[in-house]
Amino acid sequence: MRRRQLLAIALAGAVTLAGCGETANTRARDGKGGATVLNVGMPNGPQTENHNPFLTTSSAASLGYRWQIYEPLMMWNPVKPADPLKPWLATRAEWSPDYRSVTVTVRDNATWSDGKPVTAADVAFTYDLVRKNDALNSSATPYQSVTTSGNQVTLTFASPQFVNQQKILAQVPIVPEHVWSAVKDPTTDINAKPVGSGAYTLKSFTPQTTTLTVRTNGYWQELPKVKELRYTSYTDNNAQTTALANGESEWSFVFIPNVKTVFVAKDEQHHKVWAPPVLGIHGLYVNTAKKPFDNPALRRAMNMVINREDIFNQAESGYFHPLVRSVTGLPSPAGDSYISADFTGKEQKVDVEGAKKTLTDAGFSYAGSTLRDPSGKPVTLTLTDPAGWSDYQTSLEIVKDNLSTIGITATVDKANQDAWFRNVEEGRFDATFRWTNGGATPYDIYQTVMDGRLLKPVGKASPAGNFGRFDSPEATAALAAYANATDDAARTAALATLQKVFVEQAPMIPVGADNVGAAYSTKNWTGWPDDSNAYGAAQPTQPNAGDVVLHLRPAGS
């Protein structure tokens, strides 16, 4: 998912929808004494109807309601990535020792919303559908075969899948064969009448609001207390924030500048924000294919003067991208157990004099306050991100000031979003704030930044990663070793190598962690995940969103 497209829409004028003084829940409480409707919002603008659960561009994915209609085999908690997967449509999953195959046992008490039973044949059909259609295989999983035996399904793969277990079992929506076998092109079909195994069915759709209603019978576990889910797509971040502040929206994933004043203070008893860090990070990618930034000493010096505290407090409103302190780039607490012994307890700190010494020791020099590279040229660079991504633009301004302390002259480019995506993927930039992939282990972070298998020459797109054109055979070999390892000792050794390369060569400057949290209200509904009960991601577009709704209870009940 291109999360930044969701998070950093330009902050335009606020839009307040009519009728916020009387909501469905107000009427429900007046008539029956308890809330029945949950109002979910996202700042994604008018939607085009598309309920295809596989397509990341569909309205179902954009707003998150696909995970209320459809379900995965297992639930994975990205807040506690090392925890075992939670059985869902499958009661168990057994991996082979080499992680080249997994056998899942499909539960026998689940039904589709049209009353037909969920079977192993449906599960096998789903994975075969993904295997045969690259456009549906969003994680590029190398499926080899899919077979069934009774209520069990066995998936085999062309390579070990230790690092992709949660992507395979907890991020693939299972669909009914009797419906989807008639679909001519599953990569484009809008799935106008969705039939799923989840607790909800589609009630209505408009470009502004999609409404789901709870099933009346046949769901395999206790039905949720929320009788109706209303997903409203607001024009932008500001409109979504306004709706949250006035109670019109009760659950969203949106960046809120000055969050304490703008949202929390409007109702301190009920307005909550939870942004737990996960194993995915944000930071400054440096183009290592460009001189003098091909010199690791320069990149290390840049890393030493970045003020992460300022970026966290000023650009991320003190919550949105939790501060990354470890020199390894791994966020705490999600990454703590993975930090190698060499770097345990070692944290980033601003050290301008140390950075200058690093530079002069490597052949850089100063002409007054201007840094010159070993050839004598002044060191300059352009920092770029899309114009509307306000948190990233503020981050770049801070970085610009930080770099000036070691004599680097930086300019900030407010790019067109589409052009930015293209230029970053093609390596046509000096430095840019961007995110990494995330997963159950640090593999995805380091693979996004350092994988030589993704290395492309400048001008050729590398959409999967290695945007900074970092060429390290040592890191590439360690990534392969980690992915193919069959025991923890081998994985620990590979990870230690990756961290050593990351720290010593600084291919990317880590700043903040990704988060899968939310802004929500406890006025009508309680049971949300938080620090005291971190049972899953709070973000309404995550695959475990159905589990979150199942935890909710009317306030006061």
| Euclidean distance between termini CA atoms | 36 Å
Helix content: 25-40%
For the largest beta-sheet, the strand count, sense and barrel status come to: 7 strands, mixed
Task: Provide the residue-averaged pLDDT.
Answer: 93
Q: What gross morphology would you assign? A: globular
Give the beta-strand count: 22
Compute the number of helices: 18
Low confidence ranges: 1-24, 26-31
Please state how the strands of the largest beta sheet are arranged side by side. Answer: 8-9-10-1-11-20-12
Oligomeric nature of the chains: single chain
Describe the 3D structure.
With 557 residues, the protein is α+β, with helices and mostly antiparallel strands. It contains 18 helices and 22 strands. It has helices spanning 3-7, 24-32, 59-63, 66-69, 120-132, 165-170, 177-180, 237-245, 259-262, 296-305, 308-315, 352-361, 390-404, 417-426, 443-450, 473-484, 488-505, 545-551; strands spanning 37-42, 74-75, 86-87, 90-95, 101-106, 143-149, 152-157, 200-205, 209-214, 228-233, 251-252, 271-274, 277-286, 365-367, 370-372, 380-386, 409-415, 431-435, 508-515, 518-521, 525-526, 553-554. A 7-stranded mixed β-sheet has the order 8-9-10-1-11-20-12, covered by helices on one side. The protein has a 5-stranded mixed β-sheet with strand order 17-16-18-13-19. Strands 4-5-7-6 form a 4-stranded antiparallel β-sheet, covered by helices on one side. Strand 8 (200-205) and strand 9 (209-214) form a beta hairpin. It is globular. The model is unreliable at 1-24 and 26-31 (pLDDT under 50).
